[in-house]
Structure formats: structure tokens, C-alpha cells
Amino acid sequence: MSFGLPGQAGVAMLLAVDEVMDMARTTINVMGNALAWIVIAKWEGVLGTGPSKEDRAIVPVEPG
């Protein structure tokens, strides 16, 4: 299909659209990775569990 544009103008139009499409692809990729992280964390049973008391305990360090 031709819009009556010279060859170089068609390439310029494709390059302009590709930048927007690339941003959309990146957004979908990041959202998919985040969703996969959430699904796996729920599957493993670690989503929503905070650090244990041992992890929160402040252990004094002796100088020396």
C-alpha cells in the first residue's frame, strides 16, 4: 500500500512510530516481569510476610 510519499518519507514515518511502539513494548515487559515476581512469591508463600524477629533484632557489635 502506498500513500503517494517518496521512499524516504515512508521510512521516517516508520521510525517515528517505532519509538512509541518500543516504549509500549518496554512497559509491557516490565509489567510482565513484576507480575511474574508476584505470582512466584505467592506460590512460594513469601508474599506479605515481613522479616522475622531475628532479622529485625539489632545485634550490638563490640568494638575491637
List keywords for this structure.
64 residues; mainly alpha; 2 helices; elongated; single chain
Count every helix, treating DSSP H or I runs of 4 or more residues as helices: 2
Low-pLDDT stretches are: none
Look at the helices and sheets and give the structural class. mainly alpha
Rg over C-alpha atoms, rounded to the nearest angstrom? 26 Å
Distance between the terminal alpha carbons, to the nearest Å?
78 Å
Please trace the helix and strand order, writing H or E for each element.
HH
Tally of DSSP β-strands? 0
Q: Which bin fits the share of residues in helices?
A: 55-70%
**Proportion of strand residues:** under 5%
Gross geometry: elongated
Largest sheet: none
Provide the residue-averaged pLDDT.
Answer: 80
Structure summarized in a few sentences:
This protein has 64 residues and is mostly helical. The protein is built from two helices and no strands. The protein has a domain of 43 residues.
